[in-house]
Amino acid sequence: MEVQDVRDDLEEILYTREQIQQKIAELAAEIDRDYADKDVLIVGVLKGAVMVMADLARALKSHVTMDWMAVSSYGSGTKSSGVVRILKDLDADLMNRHVLIVEDIIDSGLTLSWLKANLESRGPASLEICTLLRKPEAAKVDIDVKYVGMDIPNKFVVGYGLDFSEKYRNLDCIGILAPHVYS
Ligand code: PRP
Predict the structure, then answer these.
(1) Beta strands in the chain (DSSP E)
(2) What are 67's strand-pairing partners?
(3) d(Cα 1, Cα 173) in Å, to the nearest integer?
(4) What are phi and psi of 88, to 5 degrees?
(5) What phi and psi, each to the nearest 5 degrees, are found at residue 45?
(6) Considering the chain, what is the average pLDDT of its residues?
(7) The pTM is what?
(8) Does domain 19-152 have CATH number 3.20.20.70?
(9) Pocket of ligand 1 (CB under 6 A)
(10) In the 3-class helix/strand/coil scheme, how is 109-154 assigned residue by residue?
(11) Rounded to the nearest whole angstrom, what is the distance from the C-alpha of residue 105 to the centroid of ligand 1?
């Protein structure tokens, strides 16, 4: 799906398909350099990270193992409650592995904060985070994120894996959703 297919639903295009790919290439180069002598397991957090995982993995020049986790906020119904439950756990044992969590976006940071502590307890040799997008103004907790694609304003963004009501994930760019769509 391209921007012309949902033109009226977007207030602004933040990043085009080309800009996203450029940023992913830069992140991949950093990761290739940092893990040059190590085997890395990249962990995608479903569902939003599917596009980033697919493009990042292909941009890397070294072998990687890929695994997936699905998590959901528990109880309150707001996605940033910070109380998370695992809907699908990893297949891989993390003991002594070099693990890189891959996310589409860090909003409040509560999901990643929980996930990092959970995966840390499984005994990885190292554990880092790569996110394509981060909203500094929305942060509720401090998390150490080694690889950040872009810092963005605290707006409702969709596309490239990010959804509103499960729609727009397959949009090839990232845009700010127009208020008339969700209000
Ligand atoms: C999004 C995103 C992160 C989380 C970030 O997932 O992929 O996992 O929210 O929010 P936080 O920093 O405030 O915790 P979401 O819960 O929307 O699920 P999805 O990936 O299936 O869209």
Answers:
(1) 10-15, 40-46, 64-73, 84-88, 98-106, 126-134, 147-151, 157-158, 174-177
(2) 43
(3) 9
(4) -140, 125
(5) -100, 110
(6) 94
(7) 0.94
(8) no
(9) 45-48, 79-80, 103-112, 163
(10) CHHHHHHHHHHHCCCCCEEEEEEEEECHHHCCCCCCCCEEEEECCC
(11) 7
Hey, what are 100's tokens?
A: 């890189």
The answer to whether the beta carbons of residues 40 and 100 sit under 8 Å apart is yes
Over residues 68-123, the pLDDT tens digits come to 999 987 655 445 667 889 999 999 999 999 999 999 999 999 999 999 999 999 99
| Spatial distance between the Cα atoms of 102 and 146, rounded to a whole number of angstroms | 11
> What is the atom index within ligand 1 of the atom nearest the CA of 79?
16
Q: Which residue is catalytic, options 39, 93, 107, 151?
A: 107
Q: Kindly state the helix (H) or strand (E) to which residue 181 belongs, with its residue range.
A: helix 179-182
Domain chopping of the chain, boundaries? 19-152
In angstroms, what is the span from residue 13 Cα to ligand 1's centroid?
20
